[in-house]
Amino acid sequence: MRARNERASKGEGTGLVTLVGGGPSDPALLTLAGQAALAEADVVLADRLGPVAALADLPEHVEVVDVSKIPYGRSTAQEEIHRLLIEHARAGRRVVRLKGGDSFVFGRGGEEVEACQAAGVATRVIPGVTSAVSAPELAGIPVTHRGVSQGFTVVSGHVPPGHPTSTVDWSALARSGVTVVVLMGMRNLSRIAEALVDGGLDPATPAAVVADAARPSQRVVRATVAAIAEQAQEAGVGAPAVTVVGAVAALGA
Ligand SMILES: C[S@@+](CC[C@H](N)C(=O)[O-])C[C@H]1O[C@@H](n2cnc3c(N)ncnc32)[C@H](O)[C@@H]1O
Fold first, then answer.
1. Which of 16, 18, 42 shows the shortest CA–CA distance to 31?
2. Which pTM does this prediction carry?
């Protein structure tokens, strides 16, 4: 049976590429549809931020390929991932592309679907539990809360504010009145916090960093937005982490 939110498209090859959003790391947060796709896979291309523990339960004949991208370090080129997906599917295999969180939230899942479709390879997408919401949640922080925050914005902090390639309007976010959730922002956290305060956000606004969410090593650092970068650094907390800025970050402490 096909999951309700699952999206499928037809291709010419005999194989199939299934993008599985694996959730933030704990296999218990992998969806039933994701588990079913893994159980039927011939080949799995996996990321390091996904539920890697789930790979241990796969039958021996299943080929597992590590295509992790280490931030600012060793990584598998995106084109190589496309090539592998297409090659395996064209050989008639059921390919699972297992990712952390949700494939379409900073997961390059859209690019992989496009590459497969351009090659005539059939794809389907199984949504996952994104860290943008689940990491705060696992620290007791709701990204929205009646009377506190009427919305949230998820942004990448990979490119620092003020960088020529940055397209994020940090001052607009500072004035937005909604919760700001930053992924991939640890390296640039002090610049991000500074940009928000320069944009008009009260320096006393609560903030929290949730690192290693859904793992036994999960850690949470809470401080004002003005102090969060320094506090996180002092606590030795780094990537992978999600930073939440806004009144909701004071909840669940
Ligand atoms: C390339 S993005 C992938 C996001 C993923 N597709 C999702 O929906 O969660 C990687 C970033 O996600 C966040 N992240 C992923 N897993 C995490 C975890 N277990 N704990 C905290 N942050 C996590 C971090 O901000 C990390 O730098």
1. 18
2. 0.93
- Rounded Cα distance, 46 and 31, in Å: 16
Strands (E), 127-240: 152-156, 179-183, 206-211, 219-224
Catalytic residues: 47, 69, 184
Mean pLDDT of 131-158: 98
Q: What is the pLDDT of residue 70?
A: 66
Q: Name the CATH architecture for the domain at 7-129.
A: 3-Layer(aba) Sandwich (3.40)
At 40, list the tokens: 């039927």
CATH of the structural domain 132-250, one choice from 3.40.1190.20, 2.30.42.10, 3.30.950.10, 3.50.50.60: 3.30.950.10
Residue in the structure block whose two tokens are 């997408």: 125
Q: Is residue 184 in contact with ligand 1, taking CB distance under 6 Å?
A: yes
pLDDT digits (tens, 9 = 90+) for 33-85: 999 999 999 999 999 889 999 999 899 999 999 998 666 666 889 999 999 99
The domain limits of the chain are 7-129, 132-250
Whether residue 23 has its Cβ less than 6 Å from ligand 1: no
